[in-house]
Amino acid sequence: MKVSIIGASGRVGSATALLLAKEPFMKDLVLIGREKSKNKLEGLKRDIYDALAGSRSDANIFVGTDDDLKIVDESDVVIITSGVPRTEGMSRMDLAKINAKIVGNYAKKISEICDTKLFIITNPVDVMTYKALIDSKYERNNVFGLGTHLDSLRFKVAIAKFFGVHIDEVRTRIIGEHGDSMVPLLSATSIGGIPIQKFEKFKDLPIKEIIEDVKTKGEQIIRLKGGSEFGPAAAILNVVGCIVNNEKRLLTLSAYVDGEFDGIKDICIGVPVKIGRDGIEEVVSIDLDKDEIEAFRKSAEIIKKYCEEVKFI
Description:
Layout: E1 2-6, H1 11-21, E2 28-33, H2 38-54, E3 60-65, E4 77-80, H3 92-113, E5 117-120, H4 125-136, E6 143-145, H5 149-163, E7 170-171, E8 174-175, E9 183-184, E10 190-191, E11 194-195, H6 207-225, H7 230-244, E12 249-258, E13 265-276, E14 279-283, H8 290-310
Parallel strand pairs: 1-2, 1-4, 2-3, 4-5, 5-6
Antiparallel strand pairs: 7-10, 8-9, 10-11, 12-13, 13-14
Helix pairs in contact: 1-2, 1-7, 3-4, 4-8, 5-6
């Protein structure tokens, strides 16, 4: 498998590069950054090779710059992490407009080089996924974003810790915006296959506090250690693994919807999808509780506003 990471010199890009390089399915890994980051990428390449030797893994690692993206040709997946972080005083719309130019430019150039799958990590991820889809003109199944997959994993941890069970016993997800309007699906949450509402401790579950913690988890990590890297990288690996192994797992990714959820159309938003070798093979429509569908619609309205603003940037 060949995977290219655009923005590989950043925290998330470099952590993702290491995890991917150690996987048995990885054959060719391409690390791409700006010209001024080339030395850092060369250092990252050598560092990863040392890690591969220590873990009995192997992969071919190449370094390139965004001045010449031909190196991504024949990539099975291109992961885009490039963009600017939100700074103090910057509105979400300001951030969206800046990063839309960056992501849209990459999406267009990549589409002129090869047919591939675009996996968007750049924030605001739902809006950037939409921009990449519009500018690349790829089929909808080939463009998707990390969406609320990481949020769902964070929610999963919180539920497991509250009930005192192994993390893998929890099945849950968050849909909607990767942001303040995210929607937890308690109606689709279970522990060991048992609906969460059946547990005695459920009545004491501090759901509002948990969701607020999930929403601010990224900010907490930035404040404490400068930025999140391992969590996003592991979440990205989940998705790439599903594609290469044709796992057809249900993950909550940012995907283009066309009426599958309460008639909502023409946006990219976090929804359950079946993902395998062909990318998003199905947007999985599910019945939601009344309060969940209302919250999801509000989340969609927020994203729709941003998508309209960046569509022609």
